[in-house]
């Protein structure tokens, strides 16, 4: 029987350098995970304005999109893996929240 799937996600970019349009960098480690995925999502007033990631896992994300055109946002990075108990769903191994500042 394989061991428990575990993982750790780290936001490598200093908080003072995270702003709209900037590129953030994340790193991760896993144990007993074959296909990890990384995701970054940003929200303004509870509305999803930026979403990127998946498999293969990315390490860098540029915080802008057609739906995210500027301003502060709440950021969320996650390390996920397919959940064998819930077909088509993922389970979160680790997650980090961060603040996205308005561009200066």
Descriptive overview:
Helix content is 0%, strand content 53%. It is mainly beta and 104 residues long. The chain has one domain (6-100): Immunoglobulin-like (Sandwich), CATH 2.60.40. The strands form two sheets. A four-stranded antiparallel sheet has the order 4-3-6-7, with no helix packed on it. Strands 1-2-5 form a three-stranded antiparallel sheet, with no helix packed on it. Strand 3 (37-44) and strand 4 (47-54) form a beta hairpin. The protein starts with 5 loop residues before the first strand and ends with a strand. The mean pLDDT is 91.
Number of domains: 1
CATH architecture: Sandwich
Q: What is the overall shape? A: elongated
CATH class: Mainly Beta
Amino-to-carboxy terminus distance = 52 Å
Average per-residue pLDDT, rounded, comes to 91
CATH topology-level name:
Immunoglobulin-like
Structural class: mainly beta
Written as H for each helix and E for each strand, in order along the chain, the element string is EEEEEEE
What does the radius of gyration come to? Answer: 14 Å
Low-confidence stretches: none
* DSSP, total strands: 7
Strand content: over 45%
What is the percent of helical residues? under 10%
Number of helices: 0
Main β-sheet description: 4 strands, antiparallel
Main β-sheet, spatial strand arrangement: 4-3-6-7
């Amino acid at each position: 029987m394989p061991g428990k799937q575990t993982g750790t996600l780290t936001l490598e970019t200093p908080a003072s350098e995270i702003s709209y349009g900037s590129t953030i960098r994340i790193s991760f480690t896993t144990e007993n995970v074959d296909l990890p995925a990384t995701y970054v999502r940003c929200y303004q007033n509870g509305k999803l304005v930026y979403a990127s990631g998946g498999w293969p896992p990315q390490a860098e994300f540029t915080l802008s999109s057609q739906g995210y055109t500027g301003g502060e946002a709440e950021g969320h990075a996650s390390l996920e893996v397919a959940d064998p108990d819930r077909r088509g769903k993922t389970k979160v191994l680790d997650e980090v929240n961060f603040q996205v500042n308005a561009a200066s």
